[in-house]
Amino acid sequence: MTKKFRAVDYIAAFIIILSINFALPRLMPGDPINAIYGDEANIAMTPELKSKLIKRFALDQPLHRQFLTYLSRLCVFDLGYSYYYKTPVIDVIIGSLPWTLLLVIPALFISSVLGFILGVESGYRRGSPIDKILLSTLMLFQGFPDFFAGILLLLLFSVTLSIMPLSGAHTTYSGLSGFSLVIDIVHHMALPCMALVLARFSSIYLLTRNSVISTLKEAFILTARAKGCFERAIMYRHAGRNSLLPVVTATGLQLTHLITGALFIEIVFAYPGVGGLLYNSLMTRDYPLMQGILLIITIIVLTVNFLADLLYQKLDPRISHAH
Amino acid sequence: MHIDYWRSVRQNNFAKIGFSLIAIILFAAIASPLITQYQPADYTGNIFISPSWKNILGTNDVGQDIFSHLVYGARTSLIIGCSTALLSTLISLFIGGLAALLGGIYDRLLLRFVDAMIIIPPIIVIILVSSYIKPGLVILILLLSAFIWPGGARVVRAQTLMLKEKTHVPASRAFGSGFIHILVRHIIPELGPILIVIMIQDIRRAVFMEAGLSFLGISDPSMISWGKMIQHASKFYYLDVWMWWLIPAGLALTFVVLGFALIGFSLESALDPRLKDEQSQLFKKRY
User: Do B257 and A143 meet the contact criterion of CB atoms below 8 Å apart?
Assistant: First the structure.
């Protein structure tokens, strides 16, 4: 698989997504402004705003003109107008995106490192009691849907033990600043982040474990043993490092799962990130906002996966030299 | 087939747990009217009753028996999971098999299409589409299948390419058999175990996604679903009802997903010779 071909895949995927985004509201019965903005919005909007929107998105033009206008509007990040927040969609999304990243990036880091270490330990001791316990526990975690893991943590720590905040990303109107504000934010993000890690790190673990098990059969492991290397060195320097490759690719894919998982977990914790916003937009039928959110998430996911693909080729010279 | 997959799966403890979990849920789904005397929509007369003999898990905010929701929810979950898996595996088989058998430009075009579809995160597109059309059971199954199949198609293609190289396929072609005949008589029977793995993974993903959609509140409101129970119950944190309303629904969902994950995991290790239990003596001695 050469680099050029992967890029074609991403472009094709992006075009499919754009077409679905464009076509879906226009396939709905009724006039397009109604379908795009929903019934409630139609009532809430003033006639001036309505005619302005129709003009801006060329809704009175034939379909191909509409599509071109849609694309050109996208190029300047004009995703429409959120009638619920009374602001352009892109501004609403940019306002909540940092909160989601604040959850996803630590979760990605923790779940990769934790999954990798446990995977190496477990794969190296395959068949031992530790391996069996780890494997069964993590298989159990894999069964938990993200939002249920979140709810369980919420019920345990916030409702029953009352040691963690129930919702939100920081204490509102507390007037905190500086270090105490940081502590407050960390206190609020701990549970959602933990829920994400719990629901997702088992796949990294399983992958590392499999990878280590097959690496252990290589001749260089036997050599390392014969040299009298320490166990730790064999585990991490020889087996672990050579099992890293599939794990890196999986981390890219993992981010997709973490972002979609975060959407659900944010809803559970009423976290003000993109997921919370998506839920609000679904509840208030703010269609442009919902479409915008899903489009932005797709773009992020595709970009990240593309970068992971490139990184993978850089890390493994065998792939770029194969052709 | 030279390896008895079925035996190695049966001896696997994970598979045993997985099959038991699924058997319990399957029993609940089939025998729902026998297990509970209430219909999910029935009004029992009181709201928020604590569990008792009459209502094993009490009643919800509109006075419906929660246990009956739980039991009938198994039906929705399994029907959606199994039908989606069946449909999407058929699509995977068709597209993957077609690409591998036709080869050349068709293979390359189909593979491009499959790869583009794999990159698209299914849950996002499904949320988008269902927020517009509020899918009922059938539409939801079609929708889920439409975005779950690509992963399977890749596996089927790779496997078919391998099978195609085996001598009996060109032999059969030399006797004049056509594309369909080769597919049905030679390729599909040997794809069997792989197709089952794909199907099990598809069931797990479909059940998972259906619950997610219901949790977001964008599936058909009249559908009885565990995801919807969780969404509904999570509005009442301040009462004790979550103990017999939210937790059972979440656990039931977890058990189904877990059950299929365990079966899938053990099937995969039975099929993948690298993961087979043939540990070298060296490692056994050390630990």
Answer: yes
Query: Residue A72: inside a domain, yes or no?
Result: yes
* Per-residue pLDDT tens over the stretch A256-266: 888 888 888 88
Residue type, B54: K
The whole-angstrom separation of Cα A274 and Cα A301 is 14
Chain A residues with CB-CB distance to B247 below 8 A: 155
Contact B124 A298 (CB under 8 A): yes
What is the CA B135 to chain-centroid distance, rounded?
19
Residue closest to A250 by CA, chosen among A200, A314, A215: A200
Least reliable range by pLDDT among A47-51, A124-128, B120-124: A47-51
- What angle is formed at CA B270 by the lines to CA B265 and CA B274, rounded to 5 degrees? 100
Query: Could you tell me the CA-to-CA distances from B47 to B60, B235, B245 in Å, in that order?
Result: 6, 15, 13
SS3 for A76? coil
CB contact under 8 A, A305 and B119: yes
All residues of chain B having their beta carbon less than 8 Å from the beta carbon of residue A222 are 282
Whether residue A292 is contained in a domain is answered as: no
Say whether both A134 and A261 belong to one domain. Answer: yes
Q: Taking CB atoms and an 8 Å cutoff, what residues of chain B touch A301? A: 121, 124
- Interface membership of A299 toward B (CB under 8 Å): no
Residues A115, A29 within the same domain: no
Is residue A298 a contact partner of residue B246, using CB atoms and an 8 Å limit? no
Distance from CA of A52 to the nearest CA of B (A): 24
Contacts of B67 (CB under 8 A, 6+ apart): B36, B38, B55, B56, B57
Domain holding A258, by residue range, is 105-284
Which two tokens mark B80? 């959606």
Q: Is A171 left (phi over 0), alpha (psi -120 to 50) or beta?
A: beta
Answer yes or no: CATH 1.10.580.10 is held by domain B27-253.
no
> Structure pTM?
0.83
Q: Are A194 and A278 found together in one domain?
A: yes
Q: Could you give the count of Cα atoms lying within 13 Å of A68 in the half-sphere of its Cβ? A: 4
